[in-house]
Amino acid sequence: MTESHVVEYKSLRKAIGPKADISDLSKTCVCLANAQGGTLIIGIEDGEVSAPAGQVISQEEANLLLRALSSRSINVGLADPVIESSPNGGQYLHFKVHPSVNSIATTSDGRIYMRLGEECQPIRSEDLMRMAAEKGAFQWELQSSQRITLEQLSTEEINFFIVRARQSDRVSQFVKTKTANELLEYFNLIQPDGIATNLGILWLGTPAQRARLRYPLAVQYIVYDEREQKVRKETWLDYQLNPLRLLEDITAKATELHYYHELPMGLYRKQVRHYPAEVIRELLANALAHRLYTSANDITISVYPDRMELASPGGLPMGVTKDTILHERVRRNPHLMLTFQAVGLMEGEGSGYDLIYEKLSRDAKPLPEIESSFNTLRVTVQSKVLDTNTLLLLDYLASFYNFTQKEIISLGIIAQHRNISATALALALQLREEDRARSWVGRLVDWDIVLMRGVKKGTEYIINPKVYAAAKLNIKPSLKTLEPHRLRALLEEDLKAYPGSLISEMQRRLDELSVEEIRREVYAMVKDGILQPSGANKNRRYALVPKNK
């Protein structure tokens, strides 16, 4: 088990001994409890995967620590500590921190923290209302305010859900063998006493029963022209359909989402949809699954000539931002999502935005633009293809290589930019450190599809010019795609014509290259004895070292 947003390692010195910091440990427990819960492992040092050899922890020490943590935190559920041993014999403590589903966890001095990514951060006063709403969203699914019995629900909808769940490859065989009532109870659609939950009414209810939900599921689809005037509108405000049938009906009637570009490809023409089918389905499924069901707003799909905007009630779940959405996994409506997976509406936890990024990158389209506020989450997807040559290049490479999802996303980003720094790539991939990009681009570099130049944070990635040549793409040569040895030759030619130049003067003449690229290569050429500097600081000029005759 490695550290993540639900797993935290702490040194034993933090918990036991003269340097113990119980307050810091209790803060970590509060962070985990206010998010998804998690595991607190005490006794493993930073950067290690095993406890120190010879480390021993007594059950009495573990019990005292549990008591101390419980006294320093409020509304935090801690399971009894378990003493475990690493392969080397060293012992460590394993704590389970339960999520505070219906309450807000705090430290004993009233401070509130939450796990955001892999960091523990204090909750600002303006976020308290949002957190309270998030906690209420967990309760919505299992409430049964209408007191509707199983016999009063729609027989057709009950049979529909049971058949789809039993046919699903995402439901275990053990669950499939349950009786009809047991299956519905397992998915929290009915309570043990036969009363339908809000989740059950959403799936199994009649239109009249769905309409009486406090905030029923409603969708509007609006098409605009070039002047942003409404030209067509479809609505789903009558509550006739369960979530799966609703999604299928939306995709069938939203004809503008099926439009496509036709691009020349040799003797043939390639059709590229404005919006990939998988992207539309995932965005709609996410809007239905993650919307805030304690808000009265509708889901709205707005289609313009150049883009589609999908807005759903409630911002991103606490713990997720637009800059971490590719990696963070938070369920706002966990029981609803379980039913979505069971009927095939969603692939599974965490697969949505990975797939969206992959499909948009594969079609050389911009990545989604995400805006999140307290009341609304808005996702914008552009219809255009950024660069036809990039699309054709990706088609060519896909016919020879079996890329992973990570590699497709990385390759699409690098190809669209032609030249991108390691820092910018890490930012686009929402990675915290540039070296983590290795698992995303490693094989691309090994296969010579992508070239690296520079070191550490100065590293840049470019598509190998030989790949363009092999794909027979008519791409105008660009300084951005120069291989390192060609960049050096270009600088030598420039200094032959303009000896004694400042770096800024070289950059003005080679304006496609950044100052950083030229400076890095110039410094390397000085180190290799190719260039001779003169002057100091900003007035330093460079010339070629005369060759011995």
Automatic annotation (TrEMBL):
Gene3D superfamilies: 3.30.565.60, Schlafen, AAA domain
Pfam families registered for this protein in UniProt: HATPase_c_4 (PF13749), SLFN_AlbA_2 (PF04326)
Membrane spanning residue stretches: none
Annotated InterPro entries: RecG_C_sf (IPR038475), Schlafen_AlbA_2_dom (IPR007421), Schlafen_AlbA_2_dom_sf (IPR038461)
Domain Schlafen AlbA-2: 3-123
PANTHER family recorded: GLPR-RELATED TRANSCRIPTIONAL REPRESSOR, SCHLAFEN ALBA-2 DOMAIN-CONTAINING PROTEIN
Identification of the protein by name: DNA binding domain-containing protein
Organism, scientific name: Hymenobacter nitidus
